[in-house]
Amino acid sequence: MALYLLQRLAVFVATLVIASAIVFAVMEILPGDAAETLLGPTATPEAVAALGHKLGLDLPLYVRYGRWIAGLARGDFGVSYAYGSPIAPLIGASLAISLPLAAMAMALSAAMALAAGVYAAGRRGRAGDAVVIGLTQVGLAVPNFWLAILMVIVFAVWLRLVPAGGFPGWADPARAFGALILPAVALGVVQAAILTRVTRSALIEALDEDYMRTARAKGVSRRAALWRHALPNALAPVLTIMGLQFANLIAGAIVVENVFVLPGLGRLMLQSISNRDTLVVEDCVMLIAILVIGLNFVVDVACAAIDPRLRSRSA
Amino acid sequence: MTLLEVTDLSVDLPLPRGAVRVVDGATFRLDAGESLGVVGESGSGKTMTALALMGLAPEGARIGGSIRFEGRELVSSSEEAMRALRGDRMAMIFQEPMTALNPLHRVGVQVAEPLVLHRGLSRSAAFGEAVRLLERVRLADPERAAHAYPFALSGGERQRAMIAMAIGCGPRLVIADEPTTALDVTVQARILALIDGLRVETGMAVILVSHDLAVVAGNCDRVLVLYGGLVMESGPVEVVLRAPKNPYTRALLEARPEPGAPRGARLKTIPGAPPRHRDVGAGCPFAARCELTVDVCRTARPPSVAFGAGHVSRCWRAAEVGEAP
Fold it and tell me: Mind spelling out the 3-state secondary structure of B42-62?
């Protein structure tokens, strides 16, 4: 197990190094820089060059990359070109919205997928199964921003149950939570549709295994056999897909945060890209990369905890 | 004392093109402590017969006829009632001990499960009992095996664990479906000896399902020969194998390799292939491959012909089948 964790950790670090290089390179290729954007189209080339020098934009590529990475390693995210303020508090404030939003969406989709997947697999080929499959088809076809807009119309405009957008801050947790419900549903439903299908098919596969017949031959009821014998065997693929979905969730959050005017990580990135505030964008992308890779690392460990064969293979 | 009495058992499986009868009119009985071999090629209906006895036929299967176990009718029994019997009064050992054990549960936990279900033991007490059961099936290090996961055990060890699981509640009937097919030949003999030893020790009855005549010959009191869903011949093992009264049994015996046969001599085979169930029609399923076939074989089900001592053959020309080679 220890060796297994060490292997995964090495992969984790290597992935981050590669990701950082790609992120930095892509932002460099992007035309225009922060100095031009800040001063506007009427600025003289001399003024742009002067500001560029002041911001350190005229330094060689490798120097800036080195400074950035060295800063990140120390926990220093740098200073925003556009706002002139440290980036860490900017990102911190947006994470206070985006992380709970992502967690709520994940929890929601996992709960929905587990319930619907178990229900459908237990009724394979029957009406209940067909209904679940049909619903997941709808869930897959609906873009999350469209669902978000629809929900704003129904729940915020017509029923007036929740605010249509904005974020009141965590000072009032109940209201903050209320502001995140619709975005979390909009994000979670699409994920749930995919995850339901994965859960259903993994479970159906497990139900067909010989050990299920063994369990029944011992006198285990059909239902108990499904929960105790089939579900743990179906869990590894479900967890793996959940880990992979997290990246999608972040991408979806960028769109949905804009629909609901939530000042989260997505909105911060979008603004920073249009401001050519490259350092903020790079920091955000690296943070997301760490979160995605970190979560997949956790998933790998969880799968190994479930399945003893995974533990022994790499030990 | 009669433990199991099966009368005219039939199993119909639903297929897209209509129901197919995979077991047809099986009739046999089993006394307490007795061992019955069920022999047949793949697709002969032997596994389906075993699953029907356990009430574990595939979903949608229609079971006809009667299965009386300890005086109780099983065909009309509720799932609830069957569940109470399974793993307690009757148990099953499966062919493939790798896939038949749950890869995520410790062996001891799996052996303990019937004890938790049927004896109301706590999980820890049942686990302790499972270690004793593993010792009883002569696993080298029962404590270690109980804590191990199935992948860490060898095929023979896993099959011993399966047997421990089956005998946990002291069943009156154990059905072993090809228990040694997936194992090395050297391990096979030991597993069969173990099952037979437990039978003698506990007085449980054993149904040994196998495609291997030699396995049945060495381990069973009586034998049932299945072909195309039909019980072709049944009776005491030594009688059926020495003086078969059915052309199919005879052909099977002739196909066995003979000790002392010249090197390179070809084994005798049965021409043709086993019927697919929908091709059987009204006649004898073996008609297309049989040397003795006459017109009536193709048009009508063969009658059961009794030869005394419980020896029965289903064949239109049973009386003409000669002695075994």
Answer: CCCCHHHHHHHHHCCCCCCCE
Distance CA B222, CA B239 (A): 9
Contact flag B102-A229 (C-beta cutoff 8 Å): yes
Report the alpha-carbon distance of residue A199 to residue A241 in Å, rounded: 10
The neighbour count for residue B47, using CB atoms within 10 Å, is 21
ipTM of the complex: 0.88
- Are B104 and A213 a contacting pair at CB < 8 A? no
Residue B29's beta-bridge partner residues?
B5
Distances (CA, A) of A214 to B27, B90, B95, B99, B100: 26, 13, 11, 9, 6
Strands B62-69 and B35-39: unpaired
Contacts of A287 (CB under 8 A, 6+ apart): A91, A95, A265
Q: Is B112 on the interface with A (CB under 8 A)?
A: no
Closest-CA residue to B112 (of B179, B155, B160, B169): B169
How far is B214 from B114, CA to CA, in rounded Å?
32
CB contact under 8 A, A307 and B103: yes
Which parts of chain A sit beneath pLDDT 50? 315
Report how far residue B103's alpha carbon sits from residue A164's, in angstroms, rounded to the nearest whole number.
49
Closest chain A residue by Cα to residue B115:
A218
Q: What are the pLDDT digits (tens) for B283-321?
A: 888 888 888 888 888 888 898 999 988 899 999 988 888
SS3 B225: strand
Look at B104 and A307 and tell me if their CB atoms are within 8 Å: yes
Tell me which residue of B71, B69, B65, B58 sits closest to B19, measured CA to CA.
B58
Contact B237, B221 (CB under 8 A): yes
Rounded distance, CA B40 to CA B224, Å? 9
Report which residue type is found at A268. Answer: L
Q: Which tens digit of pLDDT belongs to each residue from B16-32?
A: 888 888 998 899 999 99
Domain positions in chain A are 87-263
Give how far Cα A288 sits from Cα of A12, A292, B120, B206, Å: 13, 6, 51, 62
Long-range contacts of A248-251 (CB under 8 A, 24+ apart): A248/A191, A249/A102, A249/A105, A249/A106, A249/A187, A249/A191, A250/A98, A250/A102, A250/A288, A250/A291, A250/A292
Instruction: Please tell me the predicted confidence (pLDDT) of residue A192.
Output: 94
Residue B292 is classified by DSSP as T
Question: Which residues in A have their CB inside 8 Å of a CB on B?
Answer: 209-211, 213-222, 229, 232-233, 306-309, 312
Q: Domain A87-263, what architecture? A: Orthogonal Bundle (1.10)
Number of neighbours of residue A188 by Cβ within 10 angstroms: 27
